[in-house]
Structure formats: C-alpha cells, structure tokens
Amino acid sequence: MQAKLLTLPVDAGRAIVEAGAVIACPLLGTDRFVKFCRERGLSINRERLIRLERLGLFAPVFRVRTPKKDTSPFYIPIRKGNNWFTKKWAWDTTGIPLAYEVPDHKDQTQEGYYSIFQIDYLHIILQEMTLQVQLDSYLDRNEKRSIDWQKNGESWMQYAASCLESLRMHKYRRSVALLCQFVSNRYYPKTQGDQRTVQVGGGHYSDQCNRKINPALALR
Fold first, then answer.
1. I need a labelling partner for 55 at 20 to 30 A (CA). Which of 85, 129, 161, 203 fits?
2. How far is 62 from 51, CA to CA, in rounded Å?
3. Residue 165 is part of which domain span?
4. How many Cα atoms sit within 13 Å of 65 on the Cβ side?
5. 219 occurs within a structural domain
6. Residues near 207 by Cβ (< 8 Å), separated by ≥ 6?
7. Is the pTM of this model over 0.70?
C-alpha cells in the first residue's frame, strides 16, 4: 500500500513556487533537467520526457509561457501584483489527470521546470516503460518453430498498459519528490559540505523564451 502513504495536494507545484522553495535547489528547465538526468545514467531526451508527460506518467513542477507583451520579470519569491499563476502565464502541472494541453517537444513558446528530486521517480518510470529483449533467445531456438511476433507484441502492449495504469495511480513517489523540494530551503543545505554560510549571487538573465528571471532565486 506504499502508493497511498502520501498523496499530492492540489496545486502542489504552484505552492512550491509561491513559497519560494526553490532557493537552495533551483528548478531546472527541460533541457537542463534532461542533461542532469543523462549525467546520472538515465536514458532520456526532451522528446521522451514530454511524451511521458502527455501519457500522464511524469510532469514538471509547473509550466510557464512567454507573455505576448512586455511585462515585469517573474520574480521568486513572488512580488505583490506579479504572480504569473494568477495572470495565467504559469500553471501547475502536478495534477493527474492532466488539466492542460502538453506541447510538442519542439515547441519553444513555453517551458516546463523540474525538481532535481524527481529523478528517483523518473528512474522507476523508465525502468517500467523500457522493454529489455534477449535477442539470443530468438536465435537459439528450434528452426521449425516460428516466432509469433503478433502474440509477443500484444503481450508487450498489455504489459505496458498495465504499467501505465499502475504508475498513474502511484502518488507516493511523486509526492516525496515534491515534498523534498518544498522543504529544500530548510534542510538541503545541511546535507552539503560543513554547513558554512554560502552567499548566492544576484542579477538577472533571459532564458531562450526571453523571460527575464532572477537566477539567484529560481528558474535556472
């Protein structure tokens, strides 16, 4: 019953951002999150990551789109009168079933932001959704016995559908990742080094969608 030990509150991703729980562990844009995962041995790319989101298996903490007109930067902690969630330029993506349209992986008009703590759950999903076939077993067979590829394919698809349903219902691992992010400002620094004070730089930059963001605070 591990799947029901911890459940996701509504708009958990928005709560993380509005609480400013991204200072010690900044959220990563899609390409940076892919790089982060690949450096740790996960076989993932942008296309597959977004496909998993479309299937309702794995999603970013939130998404943000580029406003159609000039606007103030999206600061975190959020400043009064400048909450992009309220203005519908950013939206929570932690709920299942999905309540938003997932973009094509080539779409550069919006960006998803992920937590480093989500890598554990992503690893589980990739294991469940990656088929491993021992090709030598097909070579080392009686030549008179043909391979029923259709039967094999149907069996694999049934297994995939079963995994899909199970993973969609399993909230525990997803919840743990978001909980770790929510408390990261308080506890993550204590897990690093000798707990000496670390100064975080300031300044601003614009990402590939030309959104002005404070790198010392959040969406790096």
1. 85
2. 16
3. 2-213
4. 15
5. no
6. 29, 111, 213, 219
7. yes
